[in-house]
Amino acid sequence: MLFGEYYHNIDDKSRLIIPQKLREDLGDTFVVFPDRTGCLLVMSETEWAFFYERLLAKSKEKDNNIRVLARLYFPKVRNVSPDKQGRIPLTAELKEAAGLSRNVAIIGVGNRVELWDADHWKEWTKKTTDDMGENMENTWDEALGF
Length: 146
Hints:
Distance between the termini: 23 Å
Number of domains: 1
CATH superfamily: Transcriptional regulator MraZ domain
Oligomer: single chain
CATH architecture: 3-Layer(aba) Sandwich
Order of helices and strands: EEHEEHHEEHEEH
Strand order of the largest sheet: 1-7-8-4-3-5
Largest sheet: 6 strands, antiparallel
Radius of gyration: 16 Å
CATH topology: Chemotaxis protein chec
Helix content: 40-55%
Shape: globular
Structural class: alpha+beta
Strand content: 25-35%
Number of helices: 5
C-alpha cells in the first residue's frame, strides 16, 4: 500500500526523487500521467493495467465520454523507471499538466501516488478541510465504521 506525504524538488534535469518506501511498492517501472484534479498520478504497472482495463470496458459500452478522455489523457501517459538515486524523469508536458514548479508534494493514497505542486497541495488541503468542516469528521467516522 502506498501511504505518506513527502516533499522533494525537481532537479535541473527535470528529475524527481520518489521515496524508497513508495518505490518498493510501485516496482521497477511504473506509470505517470495527468489527473483532472491538477496533479500527476503514479501507479504500478499492475494497478495501471487494472485501471486501463476498466476504461477499455467502459469505452466498449459505447461511452463516448470515456473515449474522449482516453484520447486526451493516454498520449500523456509515460512509463518510467527510477535511476539508482530513485529519480524519475518528468517531461515538460507532464509538469505543465500538473502545474508543477520546483517543490513537489508526493502523496501516497493507497493504490496510487499523487504528485502535486507543493503550494497547490497545501492550498487544496486547507480549502478542502475548511469546506468540509464537520462533515469531514462524520465522513471519516462513517468510513471507519464508528
